[in-house]
Amino acid sequence: MCFTQNFWNFLVSGLADGFLYALVAIGYTLVYGVLQLINFAHSEVFMSGGFASLFILQAAIGSSQPHGIASVGFVALGVVGGGIGGALVAYLLERVAYRPLRRRNAPRLAFLISAIGASYFLYNLAGKEFGRNALEIPSPFVNGPVFTIFGATVQTYYIVIAIAAMAMLVLVDRVVAMTKLGKGIRAVAQDAETASLMGVNIDRVIAQTFVLGGLLGGAAGFLFGLNAGVVYTMGFTPALKAFTAAVLGGIGNIRGAMLGGLLLGIAENLPVGCVGTQWRDVVAFGILVVVLIFRPRGILGEQLGRAA
Amino acid sequence: MLLEIEDLEVCYGSIPALKGIDLEVDEREIVALLGANGAGKTTTLRTISGLCHPSRGFVALDGERIDHLGPHEVAGRGIGHVPEGRRIFPRMSVQENLEMGAYRRRGSLRDDFERVFGLFPVLGDRRRQVGGTLSGGEQQMLAIGRALMSGPRLLLLDEPSMGLAPLIVRDIFSIIGQIREEGTTILLVEQNATQALRLADRGYVIENGRIVMADEASRLLADERVRAAYLGEAPPGS
Ligand SMILES: Nc1ncnc2c1ncn2[C@@H]1O[C@H](COP(=O)(O)OP(=O)(O)O)[C@@H](O)[C@H]1O
Ligand SMILES: [Mg+2]
After folding, report:
1. Residue B68: inside a domain, yes or no?
2. Distance between CA atoms of residues A184 and A252, nearest Å
3. Which of the residues A39, B56, B188, B220 has an alpha carbon 20 to 30 A from that of A265?
4. Can you give the CATH number for the domain in which A84 is found?
């Protein structure tokens, strides 16, 4: 009863969350493809994107109240600013936390520890610099109900997320499928040594992969922050869920990350109407456990480690 | 001299796989490098390509040392490498695999595609097919075509006949001859010594990381020790 009553509302909010998970999940999956490494500091890429967009929009909007065509410009500015902030941090992570370990052929565990260390460092630094309370991003548009569908109210915010995320998802899909950069990323994921024999500079492709994932993750930090504000700990839970989404879709598989993100967003929102918000994270991480036990290669994954 | 290798020592960890190798390849030659499993043939090619680095000696291309370069830089100097086991990108199409071969090039690839599809018509028919679904022979053709797409001056071939049916091996060897006729220098690693020596101008025999024979291909083909060890014939007097 409660389920049918709220179904459409929770589907809409689930899709909005799902788009964000999809954007972040691609960062995990791209890096996993080229390095067989889970970049557990990706949560801080997301957080950095949130802060970068906050500062850029504070400077750009000031005290004015954006509306109309100016809103579109401000949203684009937030997306680009967040993306660049995320990309910058992702690039630095690769250079500082991972590349030196690669040079030394360090064991897998060393990368994990380095990632956790970098993550702690970054979010504590952000907490010290920007305070411990959530900061509100100046809204680049006037939020409000736009239309209702099957009784579900669709807010401006949801439309902004859907359009921005879909544009980025289509773009990254095309970049990976068609550009030289994308071919380099796929070749390194499928056989790095042979890619290098073809003239691919593996280090450069790895850096570019981090940057591409960082752009999406940082932009997602902005879109998330629009609703929830930005705070130094904001990355932890959403990024862990995006990781879940990447595993659910098949780690290493880009369309899998998109599908996994949307499915996870919907799955964790649907039960909320019946049993309460406190079940959201339980459902999401329950899915992670179940997938890891019963189908570790995920929905679209062919075999673990060899799917790009 | 296009390629010069002198006193090359290469180690895996502390164990030497090559123990002081001298080898030369001149412009427009086909040179065969023969030897049993584990002799060091693949290691030699990998060192030329920059995947391994020597602990002693050097590799020079056109008189310039290249042994300190990374593999992507060596590829940029005009060396194409067809690796052991073909190593096709399994989830890329035939066309994309070929495009990967031309990764460092700019401009139109039309003539290069035409040349490769001329040498290997089957690749043209399977342009859109995914590399991992090709037969072994087709994968070997794709691996050679992919290396040709970079427009190499020197082509390194690591056991192109491995695991293929005799008829296909014959085709591949005849195409290797054709590639040389078109002006590409070739260093051919093989265990299939007879066919390799029939095609080659000169040959080297490697054993345990050392060159034990170096001569004209026709002389190696007639040499009793080579016949005994690599051509599957009983040694004289036994
Ligand atoms: N990655 C590796 N690590 C350690 N030893 C290796 C490695 N690759 C090859 N070797 C050793 O080096 C020697 C030469 O191998 P290789 O060059 O592959 O010979 P071939 O191609 O003639 O069969 C062999 O003894 C082999 O066991
Ligand atoms: Mg070998």
Report:
1. yes
2. 15
3. A39
4. 1.10.3470
Q: Is the CB of B38 under 6 A from ligand 1?
A: yes
User: What domain range includes position B190?
Assistant: 3-90+155-212+223-230
pLDDT of residue B2: 96
Task: Report yes or no on B51 lying in a domain.
Answer: yes
> Alpha-carbon distance A57 to A135, whole Å?
12
Is residue B208, in this structure, part of any structural domain at all?
yes
User: Among all residues of chain B, which has the CA nearest to that of A195?
Assistant: B100
From ligand 1's centre to the CA of B47, what distance in Å?
12
Predicted confidence (pLDDT) per residue in A167-221, tens digit: 999 999 999 999 999 999 999 999 999 999 999 999 999 999 999 999 999 999 9
- Pairing relationship of beta strands B64-65 and B15-25 according to DSSP bridges: unpaired
Q: Give chain B's domain count.
A: 1
pTM (two decimals): 0.93
| Span B101-135, pLDDT tens digits | 999 998 899 999 999 999 999 999 999 999 999 99
- Does the predicted interface ipTM exceed a cut of 0.85? yes
Pair of tokens at residue A236: 């932890």
CA B85 to chain centre: 11
Q: Quote the CA–CA distance of B188 and B175 in Å, as a whole number.
A: 13
Residue B45 CA: nearest ligand 1 atom is 17
Interface residue ranges in chain B relative to chain A, Cβ cutoff 8 Å: 49, 51, 70-72, 75-76, 81, 83, 87, 89-92, 96, 99-101, 103-104, 146, 150
For B77, which residue in chain A has the nearest alpha carbon?
Answer: A199
Q: Which residues constitute the domain of residue A106?
A: 2-307
Cβ-count burial of B231 within 10 angstroms (0-12 exposed, 13-18 middle, 19+ buried)?
Answer: middle
Of the CA atoms within 13 Å of residue A284, those in its CB half-sphere come to: 28
Query: Which one-letter DSSP state was computed for residue A95?
Result: I
Residues A284, A12: Cα–Cα separation, whole Å: 17
Q: From start to end of chain B, where are the E strands?
A: 3-12, 15-25, 30-34, 56-61, 64-65, 79-82, 154-158, 185-190, 202-207, 210-216
Nearest CA-CA distance, residue B228 and chain A, Å = 35
Tell me, in angstroms, the distance from the centre of ligand 2 to residue B170's CA.
Answer: 20
Amino acid at site A170 = V
* Number of domains comprising chain A: 1
Q: What angle do CA B182, B134, B131 make, to 5 degrees?
A: 80
Q: Are A249 and A25 in contact (CB under 8 A)?
A: yes
CATH of the domain at B20: 3.40.50.300
**Whole-angstrom Cα distance, residue B191 to residue B39?**
11
- Establish if B56 belongs to a structural domain: yes
